[in-house]
Amino acid sequence: MNVIEQCQRLVYAIYEQMDASHDFQHIERVLMNAEAILQAEPTADEKIVKLAVYLHDVSDAKYVTDKSAQNDILGQLVLTDAERQHIEDIIESVSFNGGNSLEAKTIEAKIVRDADRLDAIGAVGIARTFAYGGAKGRKLYDDTEEARFQMTADEYRTKSTASVTHFYEKLLLLKDLMVTAKGREMAEARHAFMEQFLQQLANEKNGNA
């Protein structure tokens, strides 16, 4: 068993305990996105990209308070110190954090971040948003709520805004935050679909459809 297969086995049980917005199917889709972007970025280290994809949510702050799971798995994998640090840096740069993302400094970090953000938009992104909102007991929408565009990472994570508000605070911003050419290309149709969905939702909740 190679190191990527070992990592996949180690993370599987963790993701299967999460809600549908961050389960192992999410990881599989992010991996497919990353593989598509890798084809356009031949200089990138495929092993580092795949390991970072598998590990990027095992210690997600939305679900846990520390990085023990991430650190434990990294400690079991046969990696150089440089590889381990690179993976940790990538994971740190993936999170949106209410618009307070760290810079993705390497091509591997850019690929993983775009791949993850692609799964946050489009049809799947819509489904994931409402799955997470449902798991957290959030409203579908709240027309009295104003989207926030200036906030700390803590404010972003702790305020329980309605699911539709999340589109304006994050999802509709992601197309223009893609950092690879392939990521930008893949984001176009997904972004357009979200705009169509929000228009149809507005029509239906106002009795116009």
Automatic annotation (TrEMBL):
Matching entries from Gene3D superfamilies are given as: 1.10.3210.50
Q: Which InterPro entries match?
A: HD/PDEase_dom, HD_domain
Chain segments annotated as coiled-coil in the UniProt record:
none
In the UniProt record, the signal sequence range is none
Can you give the residue ranges of the HD/PDEase domain? Answer: 19-130
Pfam families for the chain: HD
PANTHER family in the cross-refs = HD_PDEASE DOMAIN-CONTAINING PROTEIN, SUPERFAMILY HYDROLASE, PUTATIVE (AFU_ORTHOLOGUE AFUA_1G03035)-RELATED
Question: Which protein is depicted?
Answer: HD domain-containing protein
